[in-house]
Amino acid sequence: MWRNRYWVALSVAVSFALAFIYLRYTTPQFQITASILVRDDSKGSEFGDTAFLESMGLSSVESSVDNEVELLKSRTLMESVVEDLQLHVQYFSKGHVKTSELFEKSPFKLTLVSPGKVAVTKPVTYRLIVKKGRPYAFQINSKHFEASFGDTIHLPHAVAILTKTGNPISTDDAYAITISPPELVVNHYQKALIIAPTNKLVSTVNISINETLPKRGEAILEKLLFNYLKASIADKNRTSDSTINFINANLTQVSNELSDLEKQIEKFQRIHQVPDLDAHIRHLMNALDQHRQDRNRYAIQLQIVDSLSKFLAKNPDHIVPAQLFSHDPGFALLVEKYNEFQLALREKLITVTESHPKVHLLNVQLEQVRTSLLASVRAQQNDLQTGISALKTYESTTQNQLAEMPAIARQFVELKRQQQIKQDLYILLLKKRVETAISKSSTLANARVIDRPKAVPDPIKPNRQLIMLISGFVGIGFPLAVLHLKSLLNTRIVNKAEVTAHLSVPVLGEISHHNNSKITLLGDNVQSQIREQFRVLRTNILFLSASKPIQVIMLTSSMGGEGKSFVAVNLCNALALSGKKVLLLELDLRRPGIAKNLGLKVPGFTSYIAFTATLDDIIQPVQPAKTFDIITGGIIPPNPAEMLSLPEVDDMIRLLKTRYDFIIIDTPPIGLITDARLLSRFADLSLYIIRQHFTYKNQLDQIREIQDLNQLPRMHLILNDIKITPGYNYTYGYYEEKKRHFWDAFKKT
């Protein structure tokens, strides 16, 4: 990270700049909240109308928090809110930099004539063109639609009316109106709406929504609560209205039936002439008794008259008892007169004879009176017989009427019973209608608003502190992530720790990075970190030779390009500077390159083996220092492995040992070909070159195998091309490389 500190700083700066731009131009979102208290019978949150309804015999509708929450989340309720507020119509004002959405500040209002017939499947935007003194125009694609404010305009997607709201129209802004499918808007706000009970112990429900326009969010929640309470009351009133309609319908029917029954009773009383059935029965009973009494009286009187008639016929000279006929004053006068004549006649006969004229006159008068009395008796008999006959008729008629009374009474009682039932039902329906009307007038919703919808003053999105904090982490984390990903995907060796963790082979030296890719001999007057590292390597080799003499040192690696030749050349130079006589023997016969890089003659080892040159002919001093000698590889042979296996090679090495203190053999990579294994028979010390960021990690297994099989004598490792990291310095304060600046990376490109 320290090596890439400039890139990290640039990443942080760019991240903060992007965060600032995002915060500057993103549309903030505000949270609008409201709370209601829901009537939950299980939690005792009643609104006081239950007892009143139950006192009238009406059942109250039970409710619960869970049910009311689902009602608030219902799609039907949100559809009513979108339709009432026409949320699928949006107004935009495009300024110089940013396009803002308008709601309560919109200078226009587009009213859809038929909101349910909006023919859009995706949002469509109409550009509004308003010029002073001219009708407005809608533009979509290349089509224009002109109309005056307040007129109905037929657009391709809807029929609408555009009016002014009173807000000022800015001439610097361009206005646009977007019409969206109501279904999309309903789905959006239904997902954005958050409704949740406060906790399980209370029946309070919190309602919130996040909106870019606080006034619109407040309007949405206000309309949502209004429609919810209205629907709740309407749902309760639906039962009352249904009850009232049922009562009215049945009340009309019962009233008609009751009227028909009353007419039937009236007709029944008129036909049977019984306005009062009980009184009529009592009257008939009394009349029947009276008729019987009168008939008995007439019968007695008839018997008296018959007895009188018989008495007068048998006893013409006797006095008639007048008290028996007190009921007939005329008849009583005749009897009294008759008795007077009888008495007068008896008195006269006492003094005179029957032939006396006065007696004769009295007899004549008495006969006349008797005749009148007999006539009166016969008349009385006829009258009494007629009266008795009439009374018998009346009595029979009354008895017949009384005989008919049970059936009439039964019919009358049945009519009266039906009348009473209908009348009671009529009164009950009237009572229930009044009670239902009272219940309807006192209907309360299942919830009560505690806090009206209100937007928070500060936006909840974007969170400035969080955005800046995240941008800082991203600015630092992105380059770290890239470096870490690069490290994870890296298949090459990065540091010494990876080598020591996999191998038990000691590391004899570490060589830092060198910018020159060619084989370079560091001069004697060069004081650098790499020069010092080669001195350390020379010292380590001399320490190893103290326990066991070292004269032939072989250098190899896993593959080409790991810096064998560079290390070999500069190791020879370091040994030579210590006063030793050193020879570099290039035996990488397949790809020799030292001669070309150091400007030496091509003939070398292969010429000597082929007997075309002597040993002195192929030994060349290194140029320009001439501190050590070099035998180059020479011409590339067709069979390098067979050539290295020749006895002449053993002879040459034996001869060179007599001339030099140290012989450094540069061999081909041991991981690719067998040449190094063939040359290992000459080596007293084997140096295995590992190059940082170049040697593959899986090649460490190959090195472990070589060590386990002991294919290279006294094998040690040299780490080449080490990059300097913070806290890991080879200069010991004496040698410092020139510092790299940030712009050096761009200068190289």
Structure description:
The protein is 51% helix and 16% strand. Strand 5 (124-129) and strand 6 (136-140) form a beta hairpin. By secondary structure, the protein is of the alpha/beta class. The chain has 21 helices and 21 strands. The strands form four sheets. The protein has an eight-stranded mixed sheet with strand order 14-21-20-15-19-16-18-17. Strands 3-2-10-5-6-7 form a six-stranded antiparallel sheet, with no helix packed on it. Helix 1 (5-25) runs antiparallel to helix 10 (464-489), helix 6 runs antiparallel to helix 9 (357-441) and helix 8 packs antiparallel against helix 9 (357-441).
Essential attributes:
single chain, 749 residues, alpha/beta, Rossmann fold, eight-stranded mixed sheet, six-stranded antiparallel sheet, 21 helices, 51% helix, rod-shaped, disordered C terminus
